[in-house]
Design brief:
Elements: H1 2-11, E1 23-34, E2 37-47, H2 48-53, H3 57-62, E3 74-81, E4 87-93
Antiparallel strand pairs: 1-2, 3-4
């Protein structure tokens, strides 16, 4: 269905990007702090083509929002330890709009 949406856009004159099948969005996988350095691991999750193809009305009508290819954008990552010494991570997300 994502590919059909993409092909529909191409048929209407939409121009593809170079490497549009490569991941262009990443999801938070893990985070750790060592020697005051924050290491964040990200997993590639979504190509530009899939994200654009998933915006088509047929896809949006058939699948709930939780299944739509919408990556999250992390704006802040803070790590700390709670009172028991367990490591905690605070992540703020960019507003979808």
């Amino acid at each position: 269905m994502l590919e059909a949406g993409w092909q529909k856009l191409l048929g209407s004159g939409f121009k593809p990007w170079p490497n549009d099948l490569n991941p262009s969005s990443y999801r938070f996988a893990s985070c750790c702090v060592e020697a005051s350095i924050v290491e964040v691991a990200l997993d590639p999750c979504l190509s530009y083509r899939d994200r654009i193809g998933g915006r088509q009305s047929e896809f949006v009508e058939k699948f709930p929002k939780s299944f739509q290819p919408t990556p999250l954008a992390v704006t802040t990552v803070i790590t700390s330890h709670d009172r028991s010494g367990e490591e905690r991570v605070l992540i703020t997300l960019r507003d979808e709009k």
